[in-house]
C-alpha cells in the first residue's frame, strides 16, 4: 500500500474499525474542532505551555498538519501563522482554514516547506514544531531558517522528535511505525544530530527532554499512566513502587536510569532552544 498521499493514508487509517484509538490519539478524528479542543486540554499541551514565553506575540506553527497546535497557540493569545505544505482539507492547509473559520480564530496559513521560509528575518517570538524535524530533508537548514525568522530572545520548541541510538536502528523503527508502510516519509535521527543542528544554527539549547522527562513525549498516555505501567513491569511490589513514583525525588532518579538504558528505536525527545 506504499506510495499513498498523507491524506489517503489517514483516510485509510480512519476506515479501520480496530484503529479508532490510534486515530483519536493522533487527533485525526472528526469533528476537527473537538479534536483540537481535546489536544488543548491534554497533558501534552499543558507541558508545552510551561515552555511558552510570557510575551504573547507572533507564533509560527511549522508543519501544522490539521492545525491542532495552531488552535492551541491562538487560544493562548498568540498571533499565529501556520506553515503547512499539504493543501488537504482533511490533514492539511484547508483543514486549518476551516478550523480557524469555525472557531473565529485569526490563523494565517502558508503552504510551503520548512527548509526555506518566505518570512522576514526576526519576525516571530515563537517557532513551534510538533513532530517536524525528523521529516526534514535537511535538518540543519531547517534549524537555520527557524533561527533566522525568530526575533532575538525568541524561542524554538521542537516537540516529539524520533531519536535513534544507532543509524542501524532506522529500519526497525520504520518497520514498526503504523503509517510508514502506507505513505513513507518517516525518519529519525541520532540525538546528537538534533542537538548539533540546533546549536549550529546559533541557538542556545535550553532543554533536551528525554522520553520520560516531559508529557510532550509521553502523550497520549498521561504521566500517571506511565508511572503505573513502569511499576507493573516489575516482578514484585508494583503497587508500592507505583506510589513511590509519585514522589518527585524518586521519579527523578527513575527518569535518570531510564534515560541511560532506554534505547528504543524512534523514542521521542523534545527540544527547547532560544535565540540569544
Structural account:
By secondary structure, the chain is α/β, with parallel strands linked by helices. It folds into two domains: 224 residues, Rossmann fold (3-Layer(aba) Sandwich), CATH 3.40.50.150; 42 residues, no CATH class. The protein contains 14 helices and eight strands. Strands 1, 2, 3, 4, 5, 6, 7 and 8 form an eight-stranded mixed β-sheet that branches. Helix 7 links the parallel strand 4 and strand 5.
Produce the secondary structure layout.
Elements: H1 6-14, H2 20-25, H3 32-41, H4 43-49, E1 58-62, H5 68-75, E2 79-83, H6 93-103, E3 107-110, E4 124-130, H7 139-149, E5 150-164, H8 170-176, H9 180-183, E6 189-190, H10 191-200, E7 204-209, H11 215-218, H12 223-232, H13 238-244, H14 248-261, E8 267-274
Parallel strand pairs: 1-2, 1-4, 2-3, 4-5, 5-6
Antiparallel strand pairs: 5-8, 7-8
Helix pairs in contact: 3-5, 7-10, 12-13
Q: What's this, in brief?
A:
It contains 14 helices and eight strands.
- Measure the end-to-end span: 46 Å
Radius of gyration: 19 Å
* Total beta strands: 8
Query: How is the main sheet built?
Result: 8 strands, mixed
Q: Report the average pLDDT across residues.
A: 93
Structural class per helix/strand content?
alpha/beta
Strand content: 15-25%
Order of helices and strands: HHHHEHEHEEHEHHEHEHHHHE
Number of domains: 2
Which runs of at least 5 residues are low in confidence (pLDDT < 50)?
none
Number of helices: 14
The CATH architecture classification of the largest domain is 3-Layer(aba) Sandwich
By CATH, the superfamily of the largest domain comes out as Vaccinia Virus protein VP39
CATH topology of the largest domain: Rossmann fold
Secondary structure: helix percent = 40-55%
Query: What is the approximate shape?
Result: globular
Main CATH class of the largest domain: Alpha Beta
Amino acid at each position: 500500500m506504499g506510495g499513498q498521499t498523507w491524506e489517503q493514508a489517514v483516510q485509510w487509517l480512519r476506515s479501520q474499525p480496530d484503529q479508532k484509538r490510534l486515530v483519536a490519539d493522533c487527533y485525526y478524528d472528526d469533528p476537527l474542532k473537538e479534536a483540537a479542543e481535546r489536544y488543548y486540554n491534554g497533558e501534552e499541551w499543558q507541558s508545552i505551555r510551561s515552555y511558552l514565553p510570557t510575551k504573547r506575540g507572533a507564533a509560527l506553527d511549522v508543519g501544522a498538519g490539521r492545525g491542532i497546535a495552531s488552535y492551541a497557540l491562538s487560544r493562548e493569545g498568540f498571533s499565529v501563522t501556520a506553515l503547512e505544505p499539504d493543501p488537504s482539507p482533511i490533514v492539511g492547509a484547508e483543514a486549518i482554514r476551516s478550523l480557524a473559520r469555525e472557531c473565529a480564530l485569526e490563523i494565517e496559513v502558508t503552504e510551503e516547506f520548512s527548509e526555506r521560509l518566505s518570512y522576514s528575518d526576526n519576525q516571530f517570538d515563537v517557532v513551534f514544531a510538533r513532530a517536524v524535524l525528523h521529516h526534514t530533508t535537511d535538518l540543519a537548514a531547517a534549524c537555520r531558517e527557524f533561527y533566522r525568522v525568530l526575533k532575538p530572545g525568541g524561542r524554538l520548541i521542537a516537540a516529539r522528535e524520533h531519536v535513534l541510538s544507532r543509524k542501524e536502528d532506522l529500519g526497525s523503527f520504520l518497520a514498526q511505525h503504523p503509517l510508514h508502510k502506507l505513505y513513507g516519509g518517516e525518519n529519525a535521527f541520532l540525538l546528537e544530530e538534533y542537538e548539533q543542528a540546533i546549536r549550529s544554527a546559533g541557538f542556545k539549547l535550553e532543554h533536551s527532554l528525554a522520553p520520560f522527562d516531559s508529557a510532550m513525549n509521553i502523550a497520549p498516555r498521561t504521566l500517571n499512566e506511565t508511572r503505573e505501567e513502569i511499576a507493573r513491569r516489575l516482578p514484585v511490589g508494583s503497587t508500592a513502587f507505583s506510589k513511590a513514583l509519585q514522589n518527585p525525588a524518586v521519579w527523578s532518579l527513575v527518569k535518570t536510569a531510564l534515560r541511560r538504558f532506554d534505547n528504543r528505536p524512534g523514542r521521542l525527545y523534545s527540544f527547547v532552544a532560544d535565540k540569544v
